[in-house]
Amino acid sequence: MLSLYYPTGSLIHRLPTWLKLLVLAVGSTALIWLPNSYWALLAVVVPLLGYFLARLPVRVLGTDLFRLSWLIVFLLITQLIFNEPVQAATVIARLTTIILAAQLFTRTTKIQHLITTVEQLAKPLRPLGVNPYKVALAVALMLSALGQIVGFIGQVRDAQRARGVRLAAWSWVVPVLVLSLKHADDVADALVVRGLD
Amino acid sequence: MIELENVMVTVKPEAVLLDDVSARLEAPTTAIIGENGSGKSTLAKVLAGLIDYTGSAKINDVEVATGRKKLSGRVGMIIANAAAQVIMPTVAEDVGLSLRHLPKHQRQTALESVLEEHDLTDLADRPALSLSSGQLQRLALASVLATNPDVLIADEPTTMLDARYAKLVSNQLFASADRQLVLITHDLELAARCDDILWVHDAKIAHRGPTAIQHYLEHIG
After folding, report:
1. Which are the contacts of A69, defined by CB distance < 8 A and separation ≥ 6?
2. Do A190 and B50 touch (CB under 8 A)?
3. pTM of the model
4. Which of A128, A187, B18, B104 has CA 20 to 30 A from B38's CA?
5. How far is CA A8 from CA A49, A51, A54, A59, A110, in A?
6. Would an 8 Å CB–CB cutoff place B77 in contact with chain A?
7. Which of A111, A191, A195 sits opposite B88 (nearest CB)?
8. Judged by CB atoms within 8 Å, which residues 112-151 of A form the interface with B?
9. Is the ipTM of this structure higher than 0.90?
């Protein structure tokens, strides 16, 4: 399963999960009202400051920024085609800030705590027939699936290399889909046998 | 006790995975042996409620197909693909998920005890994705045994393990006298430790009892 948590015992790590979720939700919503301006780029400083306060190593920040860089480049190109540069800068500032803040959240929050919090938050929905535990479990499985799919991509590409075949760059898509479906089936079985279905 | 009566599993197009299987499994430990594709894992899936069947399959007088809720937590299974059985991000959290039935104040002690019993304490905070196949298999077993099931169905539980851990896991499988064990295995030494042995061949029980291994070996030459 995907595990991005990086323990340092900082103040941000120790904050209640619900508070971190609330700040993330309110902050992300507030960014919508950010006026179009190059000054909007300064918003990115906020999650970066969070990384610093969370005492996360520079290489962790580097990894997170690298993963994000492809998206930023893609957005920059498309935004510059369809929008004015100042609008493009604002859009990129908004998205980069939100994604980095979300990364900071996962780096500083144990999945178990997230699940417990989601379960608590879903409790008011019980009268509507919603099982809060199942909602929380679904979150866990979703995060698990992301990690597994990344693993499958590596597995399929390794298998292709091991056979010495040179295929198109997108040739891993179908095998990964098949592996993912098989895995989903296995996980469904596992939920039943562990009494979690 | 497990009772199977005329159990049939068929899949389209017209493949019979279990063909009219009837048996009464009363022994504390039962091994199911046979070649790949013979129907062993299908039988295990029937018992765990993972596959549709016709006929009757009862565990402790509860029909598996209709009594899944009653059997939930009472029947545990280790599936052959251990990686899929691990749900939570870290070793400790995955075992912890199986201990949710305990009061909160007891969970930490129980968790530490399970991790120690399965020699997983040093791996407690390791991401499950980073574990080897053998470590995943041990984690899957620990997580299932933590629920303390009345019946444990173990499908190839030692295939990925080195000699040391194969021995540890085997001993854990046979440790409880209160738990009924159904062991699907290619390891004939392990099968020989069971009180009852079923050789499944061509979707049927071909032979049963202490001589089943001998008949199986003669068959495969």
Report:
1. none
2. no
3. 0.73
4. A187
5. 15, 11, 7, 14, 12
6. yes
7. A111
8. 112, 137, 140-141, 143-144, 147-148, 151
9. no
